[in-house]
Amino acid sequence: MQNFSLAKETNTYGRDDFSIHGGWNLGSAGCIDMTGQINAFTSWLKSTGNDLIVHVKY
Q1: What angle do CA 10, 12, 15 make, to 5 degrees?
Q2: Which residue, 4, 10, 24, 25, shows the most beta carbons closer than 10 Å to its own?
Q3: Do 18 and 3 form a contact (C-beta atoms < 8 A)?
Q4: Cα–Cα distance for residue pair 42/14, rounded to 1 Å
């Protein structure tokens, strides 16, 4: 399992235990759910050798 961490300046509004994950069933309790695309995403991210900044808009 790949571990990700939040930048120290991230305002989580009192929440914790965020994750980027995959799975067969859509949906999550606050995480970013990549479903069947998680392997492609993690392969791509590892290949860049860089950190990733994620901006979430609802």
Answers
A1: 150
A2: 4
A3: no
A4: 27
Q: Angle at Cα 56 formed by Cα 55 and Cα 58, nearest 5°?
A: 150
Domain ranges of the chain: 1-58
Instruction: Kindly provide the residue ranges of all beta strands, DSSP E only, lying in the chain, ordered along the sequence.
Output: 20-22, 32-35
Query: pTM of whole model > 0.70?
Result: no
Long-range Cβ pairs for the range 11-15 (8 Å, 24+): none
Structure tokens at 17: 């235990």
pLDDT tens per residue, range 9-40: 888 888 877 778 888 877 777 788 888 898 99
